[in-house]
Amino acid sequence: xxxxxxxxxxxxxxxxxxxxxxxxxxxxxxxxxxxxxxxxxxxxxxxxxxxxxxxxxxxxxxxxxxxxxxxxxxxxxxxxxxxxxxxxxxxxxxxxxxxxxxxxxxxxxxxxxxxxxxxxxxxxxxxxxxxxxxxx
Length: 136
Description:
This protein has helices at about 5-25, 50-70, 80-95, 115-135, and strands spanning about 35-40, 100-105.
């Protein structure tokens, strides 16, 4: 991957983390119509509690995803950057607060944050990428 592409991906990665951190800071302890501050001590709808365990798992997943990002087939995959940045930003929460800061409340779904949105969209893009690679 050339330096220009690395720079673009790095800027995108930093922007996503900045955007998630900014929104979490803005909405910390604030309540608006769809904004409802919550502390998620687990992952995926509050499942799998245990901060140290989740930190270790997050780091392992980040290392694996970074490896795949460096592989040729995945270098152009924005989905991977979305997943990595979402996991990384939630990892920051886990390290400094021992929970993730969630604030988007749709009243019919568990409360979540932008990093969660990045992860879900990234996974969808990764799956579609894998399907398109296999169908060739």
